[in-house]
Each structure stands twice: as structure tokens, then as C-alpha cells.
Amino acid sequence: MAVPVAFETVNMDAMVESGSLALIVGPMFSGKTTELQRRIRRFQIARKRVLTIKYSGDTRYSEEAMATHDKREMAALPVSRLGDVPQASLDNADVIGIDEGSFFPDLLSFCDAQVLQH
Question: Which residues are catalytic?
Fold first, then answer.
């Protein structure tokens, strides 16, 4: 099984304080969503406000939750464009997790704006 490529040394407090971007990349079935869920849980344990976003067209396992291939689910906001995420949700988040980012046509502009704003 392939292991997703990720930044191994992540200072989570620095990420939240300085506005940064971390990518989890790899081939299909390599554990990218599992790794994203693991990181989100770490931020939640650290009492950070986390907004998790999923692509609304990805309904393989759930319409409302981000799900791994082994069906582990985590609540997520389903949208078709990242620009559709309510501003109030963004304002209330210390950390934003995006599952299946490649499905979003506005991924680059959204991430660029969020990193610059935080």
C-alpha cells in the first residue's frame, strides 16, 4: 500500500497562528482522507475550531460526511465550489480541512485567499 506524501514535521500551533497550507497528496487508496481525518482530530483535541469541507458531488459513502474507503466518517460541509462556503463558517474556523480538493474548480484561489487572510 502506498503511503500518502505529507509534511511529517508539522508544528500545529504555528500553522494556526501564521496562516499556512499543508498538502496531503498521493495516488488513489493511499490513505489521504484517513490522514486528513487524523490531523483534524489532532486539531480538535488541541481545541482548535475546525471547518471540514467536502465536495458535494462525492456521495460514494455519504452525502453529508467525509468518508474513507473503509467507511470511517467525519462531519463535513458539502459544497460544489469553495466560494460557496458561508463566510460565517470561515470566520469561525481556526483550521480548514478540504477533502478531495482536486474536485474544486476554485481550489487555488480559495486557498491563496485563506492563507493570506490568516
Answer: 100
- 4 belongs to a structural domain: no
* Nearest residue to 66 via CA among 36, 89, 94: 36
Pairing of strands 50-55, 65-67: unpaired
Asked if the structure places residue 91 within a domain, the reply is yes
Q: Tally the domains of the chain.
A: 1
Which domain, by its residues, includes 54?
12-117
pTM, two decimal places? 0.83
Share of the chain above pLDDT 70, in %: 85
pLDDT in tens, 47-99: 999 999 999 999 989 999 999 999 999 999 999 999 999 999 999 999 999 99
Residue type, position 115, single letter: V
Residues 6+ apart with CB under 8 A from 49: 92, 93, 94, 95
**CA-wise closest residue to 30 among 5, 7, 8:** 5
For position 72, what pLDDT does the model report? 95
CA 38 to CA 101: how far, in whole Å? 17
